[in-house]
Specification:
Elements (H helix, E strand, L loop, with lengths): L3 H12 L5 H14 L16 H11 L22 E2 L3 E7 L1 H22 L3 E3 L12 E6 L1 H5 L5 H4 L13 H12 L6 E7 L10 E10 L4 H15 L25 H10 L10 H14 L5
Parallel strand pairs: 1-6, 2-3, 2-4, 4-6
Antiparallel strand pairs: 5-6
Length: 298
């Protein structure tokens, strides 16, 4: 959702009288929807898909990353390869108590669909209630001041956890870096993933850890879009491409929810015939065979 940045800054300047963040995001959402974006059709009749489109979409988004999500001008310099999770996903939801029910409701509606499409186990855990289980995804949801003060929540975030990547950084240090890079940018949500380099008992391209950050001031329509896009992308479809349609995997915001086209892409990614670390030349012949078997694309 990097395309939000310029539009939101303009909105704040035009308003002139310092509207609240909730008012700013509501106005923004209303204007985007009035322009025909944030559509909620899962199978829009004006954007039919076929096997060739599904395969082309997969090739465009499954092997590379988009630009740095925090708009710092950085690009991820990685070899094109398939990246995906090998272990069950255990997420910790970090939010103010007043926001927990709202976020859990959104997750409860969506997570079962992701599990069905990918075959992954995705469940919530609490580092406080169940300290023997280690989250590998943090979902941060709160107002700006809450996100800015996350360093004070070391006990909640279980500071002893280390992430098995090359830097061996603690989860709290990673969280502080992510929030520090993201919260000043006028974006409703962002995600960041950490990928194995093949050292130790990991597989190159294996997703080890992820952080999703969302502002709680956003209205429900934008929250649903953030939840569906960020969680789907952290599963391994990391790129955005303008030519991928109908899809949430681009920056035009035309569609707010995971479409049937997008669901097919996730289903393909986690097909057992594909292997983590495959290059496009290795994977795409298999992808085309998988697509030919999908309904209704055969």
């Amino acid at each position: 959702m990097r395309a939000l940045i310029g539009q939101l800054v303009v909105l704040g300047l035009v308003a002139g009288c310092a509207p609240s963040p909730r008012e700013v995001w509501q106005t923004y959402t209303d204007e985007v929807r009035a322009a025909g974006s944030l559509r909620v059709e899962r199978a829009p009749p004006d954007a039919p898909v076929d096997a060739a489109r599904i395969a082309a979409s997969f090739e465009a988004i499954a092997f590379t990353f988009e630009s740095d999500p925090f708009a710092r001008g950085e690009n991820v310099d990685q070899q094109p390869m398939l990246r995906r999770w090998h272990k069950p996903i255990s997420y910790a939801l970090i939010a103010e108590s007043s926001d927990l029910t709202r976020m859990r409701s959104a997750l409860d509606l969506y997570v079962p669909r992701l599990e069905t499409l990918t075959g992954l186990s995705i469940s919530e855990i609490s580092p406080q209630i169940d300290p023997d289980r280690r989250p590998n995804v943090f979902i941060l949801f709160g107002r700006d001041y809450f996100l800015r003060t996350l360093k004070a929540y070391d006990d909640l975030l279980n500071a002893g956890i280390t992430i098995p990547n090359t830097e061996r950084a603690s989860s709290v240090a990673i969280l502080a870096d992510v929030v520090g890079g993201w919260y000043p940018a006028p974006s409703p949500c962002a995600g960041q993933v950490y990928i194995a380099d093949g050292q130790g008992d990991t597989v190159e391209g294996e997703v080890l850890f992820a952080i999703v950050t969302m502002r709680s001031e956003i209205p429900d329509a934008l929250l649903a879009a953030c939840v569906e896009e960020e969680l789907a992308q952290l599963l391994g479809l990391f790129n955005d491409a303008d030519e991928v349609r109908p899809s949430i995997f681009n920056d035009d915001q035309e569609f707010a929810l995971l479409t049937e086209h997008d669901g097919a892409l996730l289903q393909i990614l986690y097909d057992e015939r594909l292997k983590t670390g495959m290059t496009p030349s290795e994977a795409m012949p298999i992808v085309r065979r998988i697509v030919s078997e999908l309904e209704p694309f055969d």
